Amino acid sequence: MLTAAVALLTLVPMVCVQSQQIGTNVPETHPPLTVQSCTNTGGCQSQQQSIVLDANWRWLHNNGGFTNCYTGNTWNTTLCPNPTACAQNCALDGADYAGTYGITTSGDTLSLNFVTQSAQKNVGSRVSLLADESHYQVFKLKNKELAFDVDVSQLPCGVNGALYFSQMPADGGLSQFPNNKAGAKFGTGYCDAQCPHDLKFINGQANVIGWTPSTSDPNSGAGQAGSCCAEMDIWEANSNAAAFTPHPCLASTQTRCTSPLQCGDGDNRGNGLCDKDGCDFNSFRMGDQSFLGPGKIVDTKQKFTVVTQFLTSDNTTTGKLKEIRRLYVQDGKVIQNSKTNIPGMATFDSVTDDFCSAQKTAFGDTNSFATHGGLSAMSSSFDKGMVLVMSIWDDHEANMLWLDSAFPTSEPASAPGVARGACATDSGVPANVESQSPGANVTFSNIKFGDIGSTFMR
Question: Is residue 28 among the annotated active site residues?
Fold first, then answer.
């Protein structure tokens, strides 16, 4: 998933950013969330778990005090003269989930609001599922399926309500990096296949070296380092488009990148540690423009269930990942995924290595998915385990056009693979979306994980 450059709320004297020490000024209480574990023999059993706000959104202040370590999109150079001193001087505090960030839970339902107005404006959020107070829930995906209900009816062009897996460390890096005292309890350790540079702390050190404030986001910027790991995008969507996308990495675990080549920056996009493009299945882009959207086969004006299955070569949890399959359930009806309808391309309805190769050829794209190991590399990442992440965000880099419009804009929309959704190419500008659609929101509910065929009614 593209990394959001989020406009974060700054309560005086608060600022939202990632830290490593633990602050005590604001209590940290994780909102509860019920999820279900399912088997074909025993049905589904409820589990009481919770979510945690990502550390990059939190108030960062001097250890034991109230002085901001980061204000707007710049660092306090006295408290943060270098990466290590900053980690030692600055503390990460608790969060007011509902009041500051618009994050609420009720039973099995999580709602994420786009714009929340409190002392100042907060835009977007990112949360992860916890197993306990100090560890993320780790999922082993092979020969399993994930199902959840989603309501994207209030998500306009340019806003992404995402649910995905990241190969984050289960404890948020607490045991591996001495300067990280906060860990998963405070949402540290984030990584994804974009090797995001906007993270304020990576591996227990502040990302102050080369930090450049964003020109369009008053609360975000980018440092020299990025945080890379494999990513499985289950659901990136708004009411107009949706995609699911595996992103393999050459790195076998969460890795701090420090050079443009490692991070895959600019012209190095296809040669970094991770496959930033991934292999996406977006029904609109794959040639079926009638499948998903308002009033379409999967009607985004109403809630529906998304089912994703991770099939292996021998139908066991130890076999090699061979296919990622998608189903939908709406109004009691199981809806099979759409099929590709691209000239010169065979018919596919799931993600396989053959589909990815055919798609890249048909669209004239570099097959960085294959050079980063394809489904075999994803299989290895799945063996190590993945963390469930849910977010809502707008896109200061590309206005979300890669998801819901024609992209790249330099190519005609009629060219294969360019049209990804019905949104206009001038849509998705963050300043416009934030002012015109502040009430946008996404709701995830009824999250189930278990054996193939165990999580939804047939």
Answer: no
